[in-house]
Amino acid sequence: QKLTQTKGEDYSQTLNEAFTITTIREFWRYYQHMQRPSRLRENDNIYLFRDGVHPSWEAPENKGGGCLKLKLKKARSNRQWEDILLAIINPDNRLVDDINGLRLKIKEKWDEVEVWLLVSSKKVNWVKSRTTSDATSSAMTMPHPWTTRASDCFG
Question: Do 66 and 124 contact (CB within 8 A), yes or no?
């Protein structure tokens, strides 16, 4: 099933909440079963948003926000998507306070990540960070709980 809106269909009905994560351990438990961008079909989307924030521009939390779009080359999208996810869940990354969520969009010739920002006028410096053994420690608490919505994104 593709996450696209068809005529007469409510956008929110096309999304399925897959899981909510609050610790690094939970992230890795779910991430190991999640399909990587290279395994998804064109027009598939994966959303990772703060818990309680609906991935729509009409949601009150997103109304004054903006969006940063990152184009990913197909050959490197798996690694870049993972890097972005690790930056988002990193408990030391204070930039996360300005981010409501992410959307991975699978396109024909490239993949795209949308970073949904709380306020569009804020300047956000996007820093890729890769965490190692600290990220896999058993119960590190993430700065915010995140909820993933998708369809057919698990193998």
Answer: no
Number of C-beta neighbours around residue 77 at 10 A: 22
User: Residue 128 class from Cβ within 10 Å (0-12 exposed, 13-18 middle, 19+ buried)?
Assistant: exposed
Give just the sign of the alpha carbon dihedral 51, 27, 136, 130.
negative
| Full pLDDT tens readout for the chain, 155 residues | 333 444 445 666 677 788 888 888 888 998 998 899 999 999 999 999 988 888 988 889 888 888 889 999 999 999 999 999 988 888 787 778 888 999 999 999 999 999 998 876 444 444 333 333 333 333 445 555 555 554 434 34
Distance CA(117)–CA(82), nearest Å, equals 19
**Overall pTM surpassing 0.70 (yes/no):** yes
Q: Which residues contact 6 (CB under 8 A, 6 or more apart)?
A: none
Q: Detail the DSSP E strand segments found in the chain.
A: 17-23, 45-50, 66-73, 99-106, 110-117, 141-150
Torsion sign across C-alpha atoms 145, 47, 36, 3? positive
Tokens found for residue 29: 């438990």
